[in-house]
Design brief:
mainly alpha; 6 helices; two-stranded antiparallel sheet; Cytochrome Bc1 Complex, Chain D, domain 2; single chain
Length: 109
């Protein structure tokens, strides 16, 4: 019985990791930004769905801003359907890694 309780306690502790405990890794982010580059990596790119708009270049943006934006898309606070779908597929670690990657890029001119 003591072993079962100990295992349950350990499981609870490992699940208690919060988003604040997650550190972004820019190197890991390199492998996670393929879905971003097609729009955010093209200077002057305009998307046409659901309406025509200028896609922002996000290189050099603060990691916190990118994290907050992606979480807002996940929650539906930001409404772009493509970004909502992409953000919904990301874990908290993915978001932290992508944010770390882009925050270390040079800002576009």
């Amino acid at each position: 019985m003591k072993k079962i309780i100990a295992l349950l306690l350990l499981a609870g502790i490992s699940n208690a990791v919060t988003a604040a405990d997650i550190a972004g890794n820019a190197k890991a982010g390199t492998a996670k930004v393929e879905m971003c580059i097609g729009c955010h990596g093209i200077p002057g790119y305009k998307a046409t769905f659901p309406e025509v708009f200028q896609v922002p270049m996000i290189g050099g943006q603060s990691a916190k801003y990118i994290e907050n934006a992606l979480k807002a898309y996940q929650k539906g606070d930001r409404k772009h359907p493509t970004m909502k779908g992409i953000a919904a597929s990301l874990s908290d670690q993915d978001i932290a890694d992508v944010a770390a990657y882009y925050s270390q890029q040079a800002k576009p001119n």
